[in-house]
Amino acid sequence: MRFFRLLKIIFVVLRFGLDEFLLAHERTSWLLRPLNWLLFFRDCSRPRAERLRLALETLGPIFVKFGQMLSTRRDLIPTDIADELAKLQDRVPPFSSDLAVNLIEAAYGKGLHDVFAEFDLTPVASASVAQVHFAVLPDGREVAVKILRPGIASIIGHDVALLQICAGLIERWWEDGKRLKPKLVVAEFEKYLHDELDMMRESANASQLRRNFADARLLLVPEVYWDWCSVQVMVMERMHGIPISQIGALRTAGIDLSRLAARGVEIFYTQVFRDGFFHADMHPGNILVAHDGRYVALDFGIMGTLTDTDKNYLAQNFIAFFNRDYKRVAELHIESGWAPAATRVDEFEAAIRSVCEPIFDKPLRDVSFGKVLLRLFQTSRRFGIEVQPQLVLLQKTLLNIEGLGLQLDPDLDLWKTAKPWLERWMSEQIGWRGFLRSLRAEAPQYASLLPQLPRLLHQRLQADPAESLPLLRELLAQEKKRNAWLSVIALLLTASLLFAVFTYLA
């Protein structure tokens, strides 16, 4: 089976002229002309990026999904290819209703109508990994049932193995192959696909996001019904709303599009800077708008996470960028450890300035955050800086959010909407609020550590008397100074207490 699949891939590669990518190396470029003469039936007049997209669509859903993932790695692939691959749509024919029923009955070990009071045999959505049916639970709750596509694991295994072979050829024969690291990209894709094959993992993602937005002021997230979930099946609350891509229907429903666009940006920054846990697949197909104007999130297979270090880096970089403080941007890279310690700040600063100044030669409201982050990645690569995978996922999501926001409201000022969030977050992290929050977070650890200090000190003093005496003298000297300060503080507290008592009595 794998052999015939490989033959099909080779045929598609030749049909769409993708051998151009492999044979572009100076050692093999002479082969292109005779190959084009032999394969006279193919048409290579279209741009290479368009031919690549069409080839992936021909090869099927797994290759389409690979192209979608590849389009997010703008730090690795040329811009023309990334732009074209971003057009890929994962439209997959649904599998049969009888098969869906068999999968459900196998997952629960009982008949379909023993599990659901009603079950719509016609799927409402179908993708490469799973498809969705509407149903009703025995207690009357309306649900959406997401069922893993049968045999998808073995299909993915075969196709990923072939992708690894292709990646090896590209890395060996394409002149940019080693720089683009195709083997690492395929490995990342494999991990990403296997995460999507576990419905329990997606259920947990949905549950976490729902908990983060428990007040439901900005975002509605379906409730997961855990008693009906398994690795193959996910059951969640059925959500009602208008697809966000249907602009006319939103206007007819009386939705304020300007407010909707601003809320979308606010939701994104809330997820990123407040929670460090964000929906990383926010394309229009995964978003509904409730009739009261709130966003409804769907499909939780791809979620991004950020550490406090990541969030701090992003916030400070954005603020430094929009203040055109390129020296601070360069320093942040080195301080975070992402840039080599030997990197010269002045050289890195000059490189960032040369790339970013043209961006700011336009009104601030027209500046794209996603493009700023992309330019930062491209510049960083020249200095040997490895781009963090979580930031690449964030950049892809940011471009999606910006595109969606501007589609809803062409006059949306992204900077005006985001700046208060960034400044507030920085204030909370660096100011006294951040200090108190860190103190509260560390308090349990301090509470368990402090009672142990006398025992640890006793052990240290007994370990080596010769080394312990200088330490003991130092501790006694510090204790003497501390006692003096404690005496002063005690006097001040006593005076304050007496003053308060006399004031109360008076």
Integer-rounded radius of gyration: 29 Å
Shape: globular
Give me the count of strands.
11
Oligomer: single chain
- Unreliable segments of 5+ consecutive residues: 485-506
Mean pLDDT over all positions:
77
Structural domain count: 3
Helical residue percent band: 55-70%
Biggest sheet overview: 5 strands, antiparallel
SS class: alpha+beta
End-to-end C-alpha gap: 96 Å
Proportion of residues in extended strands: 5-15%
Helical run tally: 23
Transmembrane segments: 483-505
GO molecular function: ATP binding; protein kinase activity
Family: Belongs to the protein kinase superfamily. ADCK protein kinase family.
Pathway: Cofactor biosynthesis; ubiquinone biosynthesis [regulation]
Structure write-up:
- It holds the Pfam family ABC1.
- One of its GO terms (molecular function) is protein kinase activity.
- Belongs to the protein kinase superfamily. ADCK protein kinase family.
- This is Protein kinase domain-containing protein.
- InterPro entries: ABC1_dom (IPR004147), Kinase-like_dom_sf (IPR011009), Prot_kinase_dom (IPR000719), UbiB (IPR010232), UbiB_bact (IPR045308), UbiB_kinase (IPR050154).
- With 506 residues, the protein is of the alpha+beta class.
- The protein folds into 3 domains: 133 residues, no CATH class; 189 residues, no CATH class; 68 residues.
- It is 61% helix and 8% strand.
- It contains 23 helices and 11 strands.
- The strands form 3 sheets. Strands 1, 2, 3, 4 and 6 form a 5-stranded antiparallel sheet that branches.
- A hairpin with a 5-residue loop joins strand 3 and strand 4.
- The termini are far apart.
- 29% of the residues are buried.
- The C terminus is likely disordered.
